[in-house]
Design goal:
Keywords: Oxidoreductase. It holds the Pfam family ADH_N. The protein has about 350 residues and is α/β, with parallel strands linked by helices. The chain has two domains: about 150 residues, Quinone Oxidoreductase, Chain A, domain 1 (Alpha-Beta Complex); about 150 residues, Rossmann fold (3-Layer(aba) Sandwich), CATH 3.40.50. It contains ten helices and 17 strands. The strands form three sheets. Strands 3, 5, 6, 7, 8, 16 and 17 form a seven-stranded mixed sheet that branches. Strands 9, 10, 11, 12, 13, 14 and 15 form a seven-stranded parallel sheet that branches. Strands 2-1-4 form a three-stranded antiparallel sheet, with no helix packed on it. Helix 6 runs parallel beside helix 8. It is globular. It starts with a strand and ends with a strand. The chain binds NADP nicotinamide-adenine-dinucleotide phosphate (NAP).
Length: about 350
């Protein structure tokens, strides 16, 4: 096996340090890749900044990162979907920030030569999170996504459609056959419409709740996905956003279910269910293979699913990841912070 380096977090608040790690052979249901690009999610810098205060199970030293794209260098004996040399993207839970990554058989998708590794790396965690929200039986339980969806006759509301989770939730909602409506800043209306949203609303408008309720007047909702920026959530705006979303869902007809990307700490209206999404849960249920084996390879090949938001490449090499955390933490709009390897 090749020698390899990883970006290590040795203690809460410590800067990432680059050091050796062991590369193991893939088990029969795994593949091993040479990583070529990784993307940063808010949870990465949150784990560094808050350590066991927010994530009590965290043990140091540890690796971080979930989003990776690269080249297959070894394939487990049960894996038939790819061969050595193929290009893939994958979800490597808290193990992406390394020169090599092991990917489970149900958590990777081949990508074409036309898609850069940097573009591909923006997809995994936020696709997984959206898929858990939309397709798990104990969340919105929508029909599985398809490149030729049958119209469901229901509207899905995605709050914060230009966020990374939002961009994926819009596309998966469309692939499930929903009419998808979303909130974002007006400068991002064009992007979310390109992803398939039929209607856009400005989440900072004083009339956003009544505007959305007016649109939903004669519609049935499939449920809602609640997302906000992590800093905004820490500052309390996430609760405000979720309060607005919960008010809309409580007054609309249909599935009064809100799947939230951040834990909700307010009062849930009677008759509404509000449930936190654990973006890694699809690793251990049927949704993982539904997304990464059945839907995504076909949807990417046919141009029915695109990598969004677009990558903002801030450096090359594992040593650039710390700087990339700082860029993500300052806040991005419709961008995914990426490091090439
Ligand atoms: N539960 C899980 O498994 C899971 C997985 C992934 C992410 N998350 C969480 O989901 C949240 C979003 O993550 P992300 O990577 O999608 O974020 P992101 O891409 O960094 O979010 C940036 C977006 O947030 C929007 N935003 C800023 N302030 C807002 C507000 N007050 N209300 C609503 N939206 C606001 C902005 O929209 P405009 O530019 O249009 O203004 C911006 O595009 C984070 O808290 C993250 O920790 C959870």
């Amino acid at each position: 096996m090749p020698s390899s380096q990883a970006a290590w977090l040795t203690a809460k608040g410590a800067p990432l340090t680059i050091g050796p790690t062991t590369v193991s052979d893939p088990t029969p249901n795994q593949i091993l890749i040479k990583s070529r690009a990784v993307a940063i999610n808010p949870v990465d810098w949150a784990m560094q900044a808050m350590g066991q205060d927010l994530f009590p199970w965290l043990k140091f030293p540890c690796t971080l990162g979930n989003d990776v794209a690269g080249e297959v260098i070894s394939v487990g004996s049960n894996v038939t979907r790819v061969k050595v040399g193929d290009r893939v993207l994958g979800f490597a839970e808290r193990a992406a920030f390394q020169e090599h990554a092991i990917l489970a058989g149900n958590l990777f998708s081949p990508i074409s030569n036309n898609m850069s590794f940097e573009e591909a790396s923006v997809i995994p965690l936020c696709l997984s999170t959206s898929a858990c929200a939309l397709f798990q039986k104990d969340h919105l339980a929508l029909p599985h996504p398809s490149v030729k969806p049958k119209p469901l006759g229901k509207t899905l509301l995605v709050w914060s459609g230009a966020s990374s989770v939002g961009c994926n939730a819009i596309q998966l909602g469309v692939a499930a056959g929903c009419d998808v409506i979303t909130t974002c800043s007006p400068k991002n209306y064009e992007l979310v419409k390109k992803l398939g949203a039929s209607q856009t609303f400005d989440y900072s408008s004083d009339t956003v709740v009544s505007d959305i309720l007016a649109y939903l007047e004669d519609k049935t909702i499939a449920g809602a996905v609640g997302v906000s920026n992590l800093n905004a959530w820490r500052a309390g705006h996430g609760v405000i956003a979720d309060n607005m979303l919960l008010e809309i869902v409580s007054k609309a007809k249909g599935n009064k279910f809100v799947a939230t990307a951040q834990p909700y700490k307010g009062q849930v209206p009677e008759g509404v269910e509000c449930k936190f999404i654990l973006g890694s849960a699809l690793a251990t249920n049927e949704v993982g293979a539904v997304i990464y084996a059945d839907y995504l390879p076909k949807a990417l090949a046919e141009g029915k699913f695109i990598a969004a938001p677009e990558p903002l490449v801030v450096g090359k090499g594992l040593e650039s990841i710390q700087k990339a955390f700082e860029v993500q933490m300052k806040g991005v709009s419709a961008k995914k912070v990426v490091v090439s390897l």
